[in-house]
Amino acid sequence: MGGTPFGRYRLVELLGHGGMGEVWRAHDTGTDRIVAIKLLHPHFSDNEEFKRRFRREAHAAARLNTPHAIPIYDYGEIDGRLYMCMRLIEGRDLQSVLAEGAARPRMGPPHHRTSR
Q1: Which InterPro entries does the record associate with it (predicted)?
Q2: Which of 41, 16, 18, 37 is nearest to 27 (CA)?
Q3: Residue 51 annotated as lining a ligand binding site
């Protein structure tokens, strides 16, 4: 499998980017699975307080065990870039879904709605 080396990962395809960084489809060569890696912009690594907070929050997220949160497999810093490795969820991004108006809240039948 091709891609750009990043530690034990190979960055295969850029999936998106924003103010905090980029999200890549990647191959984890240690576990031989396809994952998503969020790479934060390099300037975030210059701030020691930000790095401490990132590690604390990533550690807390990695400990979650619920079907309602994406599992975090790994996090840290490689070559001056903070990263978080997580399960890759295939599908459309939330921004596209919301732009189409497809994610409107659904209400149950009238007899299921209650007021408190």
Answers
A1: Kinase-like_dom_sf (IPR011009), Prot_kinase_dom (IPR000719), Protein_kinase_ATP_BS (IPR017441)
A2: 37
A3: no
Continuous segment of H or E residues that includes residue 14: strand 9-17
Q: Where are the domains of the chain?
A: 4-90
Two structure tokens written together for 15: 């999936």
Q: What pLDDT, on the 0 to 100 scale, is given for residue 1? A: 63
Per-residue pLDDT at 113 exceeds 80: no
For the record, the structure tokens of 58 come out as 């990533």
- 91 token code pair: 């599908």
Q: For the domain covering 4-90, report its CATH number.
A: 3.30.200.20
CA pair distance 85, 93, nearest whole angstrom: 18
Collapsed DSSP state (helix, strand, coil) of residue 68: coil
Gap between the Cα atoms of 110 and 115, Å rounded: 11
pLDDT one-digit tens code per residue, 28-75: 999 999 999 999 999 999 999 999 999 999 999 999 999 999 999 999
